[in-house]
Design brief:
The structure holds 2 protein chains of 2 kinds. By secondary structure, chain A is of the alpha/beta class. Chain A has 2 domains: 204 residues, P-loop containing nucleotide triphosphate hydrolases (Rossmann fold, 3-Layer(aba) Sandwich); 68 residues. Chain A is built from 10 helices and 9 strands. In chain A, helix 4 packs across helix 5. By secondary structure, chain B is an alpha/beta fold. Chain B contains 7 helices and 10 strands. In chain B, the strands form 2 sheets. Chain B has a 6-stranded mixed beta sheet, with helices on both faces. Chain B is globular and about 50 Å long. Chains A and B meet through helix 7, helix 9 and helix 10 of A and strand 1 and helix 2 of B.
């Protein structure tokens, strides 16, 4: 077995059940039963026994129909929500060490950390872009302020430096820097999405989570956002997890893809293999439904 | 000569679940050896599995059975059929290239930058130098200089194909898989492409190719593998 470097993120048997849950939940749901609602207790199984590795510089795609558990998974990984069971490990290579707490996370199950350490880890090492900008931004606070919020949480204190960082990132994401003191409420949907991207990048994260970043944007803005993501990946050597129902986006951005249905990963593989040689019945249906 | 690839008992079966589990056997027990530094041509009628072989080697298709032993500079001898996805991605960056019939369009990236991109991400040379190399290659392939900074989405089929070829050969992969690279090119440009293939072969790239045009196949290949009969036929004289 060949190993070139440890994965940045390792997820093992992640399970998320909404509701009381019972011993039958996992066995009574899934693609074989055509549902993710447990027939015994009525709980919803959003994610069941999900395991994967994410390597440095890699972009992993997640596709699946709505309700398949994609966003639940992303939110759990970003520590917005708690997993019912499972583990997650983050490997921080010594040369990117910035936070004094970095050594605390080593070989520790992130899900089992204290809320303080989880928050600290999220603020200093992770970034997320939600499908809905209202979830990721405070619409009444200036764009620059939104970015500074994350920076303060990551331990920054110098206003001048924070403003410099904000204007650098807004410029990178093609937002006119003159508008950095305006609240995102005044911005178009595409611009709000780019402010979110700036915010997610502000703390030099190890891992970025993108939840349907381009859905609902018009084609030219979508191309601009995708272009941006591609160049950021090259410039900053980031690892990404990209959730999308658009197979074109997945093809363009990702090298590996997981296909989800009823809270399970029904198939995973190289993105071109998933798109050209899908094995699972659902993946075949999905791929053959492409425009 | 060293063996670069040793394909052993390769089987590729497609099961179409959306069509009631219909089975298509694209490759049944194929064994094949490829030596380093030569150009191989695969011949056989349409549907005989020529592209399937290339895609199995590149792992766009997951082989159903069998082994594809590959002599990697970085990893040593590995079985591409069972190698981890992570290592395959790495090999695609370091050693194995693929030219398909179609260009993978990247929105808002100009022709020159599409061609230069593989050099930037692989060899770490300066962007200016990479662009110069890309321009040189595009000029050689008779792409008009007006198009260098245009977006290939608006290009003709032949122009897109040449951009595609340029992107694949610019970084000199150790193994290059080419699937119908000259299908929509005129004779002159096609012969330039073949010249380039010969050139990179002389610099050490091994090429496995599928050509629709048997004349071209015979001109360019050092060895031709006949899929129907399952034997090598000599490249230049025997056909």
């Amino acid at each position: 077995m060949i190993q070139s470097g440890a994965p940045v993120l390792r997820v093992k048997d992640l399970t998320k059940i909404y509701g009381s849950g019972c011993p039958h939940c996992l066995k009574a749901t899934g693609p074989d039963y055509g549902t993710n609602i447990c027939s015994h207790c009525g709980a919803v199984v959003a994610c069941a026994d999900i395991s994967f590795d994410l390597y440095t510089d890699e972009v992993l795609g997640i596709v699946g129909e709505s309700g398949s558990g994609k966003s639940s998974l992303i939110r759990i990984l970003h520590l917005d929500d708690e997993a019912t069971s499972g583990q997650m490990y983050l490997t921080i290579s010594p040369d990117t060490k910035i936070d004094t707490c970095d050594s605390v996370y080593k070989n520790k199950n992130v899900f089992a950390l204290s809320p303080f350490l989880k928050r600290r880890l999220r603020n200093s090492r992770m970034g997320i872009v939600y499908q809905n900008p209202y979830m990721g931004l405070r619409m009444g606070v200036s764009a620059g302020g939104n970015i500074a919020e994350r920076l303060i949480a990551a331990g920054w204190r110098n206003i001048k430096k924070m403003r410099e960082r904000s204007s650098y990132l807004l410029d990178k994401t093609e937002i006119p820097v003159q508008r950095m003191d305006e609240p995102p409420r005044n911005f178009s949907g595409g611009m709000q999405q780019r402010v979110q991207i700036s915010k997610s990048l502000s703390n030099n994260p190890l891992v970025l989570f993108f939840d349907e970043v381009t859905s609902g944007l018009d084609l030219s803005v979508q191309a601009r956002v995708l272009d941006l993501v591609r160049s950021l990946q090259k410039d900053f050597k980031l690892s990404f997890i990209v959730v999308s129902h658009d197979l074109g986006v997945i093809r363009l951005l990702t090298s590996r893809t997981m296909v989800m249905k009823y809270g399970r990963v029904v198939e995973s593989g190289l993105t071109d293999q998933i798109l050209e040689d899908p094995h699972n019945a659902y993946t075949q249906l999905l791929v053959s439904s492409q425009l | 000569m060293n063996k670069l690839l040793n394909i052993n008992g390769l089987v590729k079966r497609f099961v179409l679940h959306t069509r009631g589990g219909k089975i298509i056997d694209a490759l049944k027990d194929l064994s094949l050896e490829v030596r380093a530094g030569e150009i191989y041509g695969l011949s056989g009628p349409s549907g005989s599995g020529k592209s399937t072989i290339l895609k199995c080697i590149y792992r766009t298709y997951m082989p159903t059975h069998g082994a594809i032993w590959y002599e990697s500079s970085h990893y040593g001898k590995v079985d591409l059929a069972s190698l981890s996805e992570h290592a395959i991605i790495d090999l695609r960056k370091r050693e194995i290239g693929f030219v398909s019939q179609f260009l993978k369009i990247i929105p808002r990236v100009s022709a020159v930058d599409i061609v230069a991109e593989p050099l930037l991400s692989r060899n770490g040379i300066s962007p200016e130098k990479a662009r110069l190399k890309a321009i040189h290659l595009l000029e050689r392939l008779h792409i008009s200089s007006q198009l260098f900074d245009a977006y290939p989405v608006t290009f003709s089929g032949g122009e897109q194909q040449r951009v595609n070829i340029a992107r694949a050969v610019i970084w000199r992969p150790k193994l290059l898989l080419v699937d119908e690279p000259i299908a929509s090119l005129d004779q002159l440009t096609a012969s330039i492409v073949l010249d380039i293939f010969n050139e990179i072969r002389n610099e050490g790239t091994t090429i496995i190719s599928v050509f629709h045009d048997t004349g071209m196949l015979r001109t360019v290949s050092d060895r031709i593998y006949d899929l129907e009969r399952g034997v090598y036929t000599d490249g230049l004289c025997n056909l």
